[in-house]
Amino acid sequence: PNRIFSGIQPSGGLTLGNYLGALRRFAQKQDEGIESIYCIVDMHAITVWQDPAKLRHATRELTAAYIASGIDPEKSVLFNQSQVSAHAELGWIFNCVARLGWMNRMTQFKDKTAGKNAEASSLGLYAYPALMAADILAYKATHVPVGDDQKQHVELTRDIAAKFNHDFGVNFFPMPEPVIEGAATRVMSLRDGTKKMSKSDPSDASRINLTDDADTIAKKLRKAVTDPEPLPETAEGLASRAEARNLVNIYAALTNSSVEAVLGEFAGQGFGTFKPKLAELAVSVLSPISTEMTRLMQDTGEIDRILSRGAERAEAIARPILDDVYDIIGMVRRK
Ligand code: ATP
Ligand code: MG
């Protein structure tokens, strides 16, 4: 039986990348009837400094974004990580399964410490992939829908599962598969076509936020870095034009079509024509979501109740799995 797990960090406002690469696809999976567990990974967020009041707000706002994007908290399990201690418990065990050499190969740690003193980053930021493996395997999830940037971490999760099974001579954890599909598996920064769009990028101009209004979206796209060439006839014509390719990809993802179809419509036209069309399209997709988020955020008591209920349901799945893990590794349990 298939079971999906995925998570998003409450580390800031959500971006168009999070929507196209994660939220929208999570809702599709739920609607296909696959058992789905979606988490607000607040324990991952604190691997870098989070102001407590902002963290609390971002957790509730992310819950609202999940629901506004189509996650039904009755159909899917929707909760925040710190309410289910199985994540922290299994995370520690996986810290003892994963090898330092494996962690040293993780590119996200390198990206997140680039230009900074890595020695001054938290131990949690380094160990993050082991906690992510615990998030997934605490539910024995089989499929993990993520953006392209998380592929390496899901592969590490498989390595951890395999080593655990091998070391203890059991066939206990499944090998979860990353599910990376669609036109927008890696939405790039509007300021630099070689960098991923991220909610924690210090430059707000680098991203479109779910909560940006129509004028802000139009302005950010108008200022987005592009080249002076018109759009080409074929996808190959975008090969060495990272920024142009990114905007065409976004257009294709927002219309559920392909890069070829978008070029079929816009080939020969310049960005002066294309950018306002893209802005109009982005606003038409995002504004109903941000309106619904605003409405949901008026009742944070209800949001907190949804999270508590989700945590109870998550706990009911994870606890028996954790009990088995403790038995397998030889921990004497309370009678
Ligand atoms: P942070 O900068 O704090 O790491 P983030 O924007 O990378 O934030 P995450 O919470 O780390 O967001 O990731 C949540 C999900 O969104 C993951 O599945 C991730 O792969 C996906 N995602 C993040 N950025 C993009 C992007 N630019 N394009 C497509 N998917 C993305
Ligand atoms: Mg990230």
From TrEMBL:
Family designation: Belongs to the class-I aminoacyl-tRNA synthetase family.
Protein's gene: trpS
'KMSKS' region (motif): residue ranges: 196-200
Pfam families reported in the protein's UniProt record: tRNA-synt_1b
Reactions mediated catalytically: tRNA(Trp) + L-tryptophan + ATP = L-tryptophyl-tRNA(Trp) + AMP + diphosphate + H(+)
Top-level taxonomic group: Bacteria
Assembly and binders: Homodimer.
HAMAP family: Trp_tRNA_synth_B (MF_00140_B)
Gene Ontology BP annotations: tryptophanyl-tRNA aminoacylation
Protein name: Tryptophan--tRNA ligase
InterPro entries reported for this sequence: aa-tRNA-synth_I_CS (IPR001412), aa-tRNA-synth_Ic (IPR002305), Rossmann-like_a/b/a_fold (IPR014729), Trp-tRNA-ligase (IPR002306), Trp-tRNA-ligase_bac-type (IPR024109), Trp-tRNA_synthetase (IPR050203)
Gene Ontology, cellular component aspect: cytosol
Annotated keywords: Aminoacyl-tRNA synthetase, ATP-binding, Cytoplasm, Ligase, Nucleotide-binding, Protein biosynthesis
Residues that bind ATP: 9-11, 17-18, 147-149, 187, 196-200
Motif ('HIGH' region): 10-18
Keyword Transport carried by entry: no
Binding site for L-tryptophan: 135
Gene Ontology MF terms: ATP binding; tryptophan-tRNA ligase activity
Function, in words: Catalyzes the attachment of tryptophan to tRNA(Trp).
PANTHER family associated with the record: TRYPTOPHAN--TRNA LIGASE, MITOCHONDRIAL
NCBIfam families: trpS
Enzyme Commission number(s) of this protein: 6.1.1.2
